[in-house]
Amino acid sequence: MTREDNAVSTDTITYDRDADGVVTLTLDDPTQPVNTMRAQFVDDLESIVTQLRGEEDLTGVLVTSAKSTFFAGGDLRELIQAGPDDVEAVAANSARIKDALRGLETLGKPVVAVLNGTALGGGLEIALACHRRIAVENPKAVFGTPEVTLGLLPGAGGVVRTVRMLGIVPALLGVLLQGQQMKLAKALEVGIVDEAHGDLDAAMAAARAFIADNPESHQPWDVKGYKIPGGGPSHPAFAANSPAIPANLKKQSKGAHYDAPHHIMCAAVEGAGVPVDRAFEIETRYFVDLVCNSPQAKNMTQAFFFDLQAINKGESRPDGYDTWQATKVAVLGAGMMGAGIAYQCAKSGIEVVLKDISVENAQRGKSYSEKLVAKGIERGKVTEEKGQALLDRITPTASYDDLAGCDLVIEAVFESTELKHQVFGDTEPVVADDALLGSNTSTLPITELAKGVERPEDFIGLHFFSPVDKMPLVEIIRGGQTSDAALAKAIDLVQQIKKTPIVVNDSRGFFTSRVIGTFLNEAVAMLAEGVHPVSIERAGEKAGYPAAPLQLMDELTLTLPRKIAAEFEAAAERDGIPFERHPAQDVLDRMVEEFEREGKSAGAGFYDYDEAGKRTKLWPGLLEHVRREEVTIPQEDMVERMLFAEALETVKCFDEGVLITPQDANIGSIFGIGFPAWTGGVVQYIDQYEGGTTGFVARCKELADRYGDRFVPPASLAAKAEAGEPFRS
Ligand code: NAI
Question: For residue 713, is it within any domain?
């Protein structure tokens, strides 16, 4: 029997030794479309490394994958289950993976990772334990350690090895703390991939050449005299740079506490000052603490992995309809939103006819795309050719005749039912007979708007967020008569233009506008009670909102919430429902009517603005006219009043059938309206509150006693609390 025949492949790793003594390990989990670090893989990795260490006349090792990606990462289904009782088990598992990878990198023989595709998280960590990383040029492939975005840290040596390869500051700021998923060019620039080749054969040949040229191979940190690039924590060079790290963290989180970046920073800095094996232990300790003890890790993994995945897989898409692709869109209204929607559609290859009341207006809308393209070219993100092709796809016009042949309409004219009825009346006869008819209204009920068209079954809300090119969400609103076919088309469209769709049923303000309104109103209600405006802004930041509430209110204008409240009041009166005036209203009325301060666009709001429209300071009049010295509220109450207001409105959206799935609520709240990411979204926030729904409802009652009946928990939530059930069930 030859030596090759003795080699044993495992379930998830194929082991092939060739006549030159080179062993190729092919990662190929038969049970999943991608490779992950599930329990079986860990067993297999251990036995493979043991085998390699016993291999006679070993020349080198190639590590590659039989999947279209290299390796996806840790097994999140296992990690999300772990709790405080699992500390020892999680630590032992992490140590086993680390020991196996350490065994690989200390073989004394060259080990090369051939990255045929994406290597993220645990996948990149396997590659980092190799002596060289050679990638195939694959435009779909991304590389990095996205753990931080899931509230975790790379616990298979990723912190220790990036720090030792790149230096503490570059590893933290360039790889670990942002968790970017880098395209190949960026990964090469940062240094987590060493070289790239056009195809797999060329990459394999380069890997073999590396093995031939480096018969003895070690990691730099295992060579005597090694020093961390840029110095360890006690080095003066590091001392000079180190303040940048917490400063960066603070900037990212705006004062809210995020466990994962904190733990990553500690693991990196503490690990850099000790021998590598000790550094691995430190990394494990911080990793285990996140996995077992951090609610944020659970929340963020649930939202950003599981909920997002369900949405991307089209869970809300009705079955039985072929995938649809829009080819030509009529964008009605070339203002702020229409201009952004035109750009996003053209970028995704759709022909755009951008219609406004004059060609000049329409051209002004197109110039928004011209600016974005020019910026993209300047930054090397797009070629001149592609940029020009994008612009050529946008035709500005003032004539309805030019809309002929459009299979999609997205309307973004002023927020007026009458005007919207009128433009649809003029558009519908010109576009294709089966064109999907979408409106970007942010508040007007879709069922009402659909009364202005001949085909209400094809009418749907496509609610974009500003700025369209940056905001990842589109809220799809199903009107009373919208058909399943139209809903399927709308979901396909949103994915075609590379946005994330959530699906809700019709109501005034839908889900997002309605819920964000309660957050802003709550902040203003505190102002009305006499709380210092700076305390309110700090509480918003502390909660983890991306923008302080009064600042945001100024951006959105103080007139908008007044208009919305007036519409709600009129609708309530029409329907014979009692309308309760929100305590925020008085302050808003005074701001607009008495002080003539309508917000940022008017040059005066809660803040003062300079000539160029830049925010300068809080308006001193707030202290004079609204602030009451004797009023102080605990910060915790202020933080929770804002978060609870949004959570309770979300519960009402479920009660009324506006929201259908918890994943839409979670992702919609984070991606659309800035609900803090650490919560995992607005439903997750309720369920993860201390004491679950029971604790949440108890706290609602406290807040209701102190601050008003709007905090009284809806009956549906109280019933879940009573039964000790999570809201999401
Ligand atoms: P805008 O005022 O910037 O633009 C509206 C455009 O519609 C103007 O260029 C106007 O000339 C044009 N227009 C008016 N009548 C027209 C007609 N008969 N035919 C063609 N064009 C006509 O307004 P914005 O902010 O872009 O909002 C548009 C819509 O999007 C509104 O329904 C708004 O509620 C909604 N929306 C706004 C968001 C925002 O952040 N501004 C967010 C999401 C939705």
Answer: no
682 lies in some domain: no
Pocket of ligand 1 contains residue 361 by CB under 6 Å = yes
Q: Which residues contact 513 (CB under 8 A, 6 or more apart)?
A: 442, 443, 463, 564
- Is the same domain home to 148 and 111? yes
Three-state secondary structure call for residue 655 = helix
pLDDT tens-digit profile of 480-499? 999 999 999 999 999 999 99
Could you give the residue ranges of the DSSP H alpha helices within 576-689?
585-589, 621-625, 635-655, 662-673, 682-688
Per-residue pLDDT tens for 170-181? Answer: 999 999 999 999
Are 199 and 185 a contacting pair, CB within 8 Å?
no
Output the CA–CA distances (angstroms, integers) from residue 674 to 86, 250, 448, in the order listed.
33, 17, 28
**In a shared domain, residues 179 and 257:** yes
Distance 415 CA to ligand 1 centre (A): 7
Kindly state whether residue 485 falls inside one of the protein's structural domains.
Answer: yes
Q: Is the pLDDT of residue 578 over 90?
A: no
Q: Which two tokens stand for residue 30?
A: 């038969």
673 C-beta closer than 6 A to ligand 1: no
Q: Is 338 in the pocket of ligand 1 (CB under 6 A)?
A: yes
Peptide bond into 467 cis (omega under 30): yes
| Domain finish residue from 612, 634, 656 | 634
> Ligand 1, from 353, 355, 356, 446: best to mutate by most atoms within 8 Å of Cβ?
356
Give me the residues paired with residue 130 across strands. Answer: none
CB distance 461 to ligand 1 below 6 Å: no
Residue 724, domain member (yes or no)? no
Atom in ligand 1 nearest the alpha carbon of residue 365: 9
CA 366 – ligand 1 centroid, Å: 14
Report the helix count and the strand count for the chain, using DSSP H and E: 32, 18
Number of independent structural domains in the chain: 3
340 CA closest ligand 1 atom index: 26
* pLDDT at residue 19 in the model: 94
CA–centroid distance, 612 to ligand 1, in Å, is: 24
Q: Is the domain of 392 the same as that of 449? A: yes
> Is 463 noted as a catalytic residue in this protein?
yes
How many C-beta atoms lie closer than 10 Å to residue 165's C-beta?
A: 18
pLDDT (0 to 100) of residue 494: 98
CA distance 366 to 483: 32
CATH value at residue 624 = 1.10.1040.50
Amino acid identity, residue 261?
P
Phi, psi of 656 (to 5 degrees): -90, 0
Task: Select from 477, 448, 452 the least CA-distant residue to 463.
Answer: 477
Q: Write down the pLDDT at residue 7.
A: 61
Q: Which of 26, 699, 677 is nearest to 305 (CA)?
A: 677
Handedness of CA 167, 168, 172, 176 (dihedral sign): positive
Residue 292 · residue 84 · CB < 8 Å: yes
Q: Which residues pair with 330 in a beta bridge?
A: 353, 409
Q: What is the pLDDT of residues 197-220, one digit of tens each?
A: 999 999 999 999 999 999 999 999
Nearest CA owner, ligand 1 atom 44: 442
CA atoms within 13 A on the CB side of 70: 31
